[in-house]
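Recall the central idea of this unit: under ordinary conditions, the amino acid sequence of a chain determines the structure it adopts. In this exercise we apply that idea directly, starting from the sequence alone.
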Amino acid sequence: MKITIIDGQGGRIGRTVIEQLKRKHGTLELYAIGTNSAATTAMLKAGADYGATGDNAVIVNAADSDIIVGPVGIVFANALLGEITPAIATAVSASRAFKILIPVSRCNHYIAGLAEAPMGDYIRSAVEKVESMLADKN
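Accordingly, the structure predicted from this sequence is:
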């Protein structure tokens, strides 16, 4: 199962997801794809097994991923202060992968029905969903 974590800016969300998954599943192979080198570096330092940066890295890895985890902005063109290009948003949206999107309110959107919670709670929920999908595969 190919699990790809996509993040931008400083990679804080992706870094935290990777740390939590590696803590419980040390042998799990995780792909860290950053929209910039700082995000990729942060996710690699957190324990990702593979890392790449930029539009093409997202396009190539989204195409064959089973699970994609990242902030909700990865499916919105021009989100993350412009780091999410239309090509990135299209690649993630069109991917056959199951997407686990972490809500972030700074992308000029509102997700109706979503309870306000600290970012840590959203990340924990995303990690739990990945874990439940792993358990279902076994």
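The chain has a mean pLDDT of 93.
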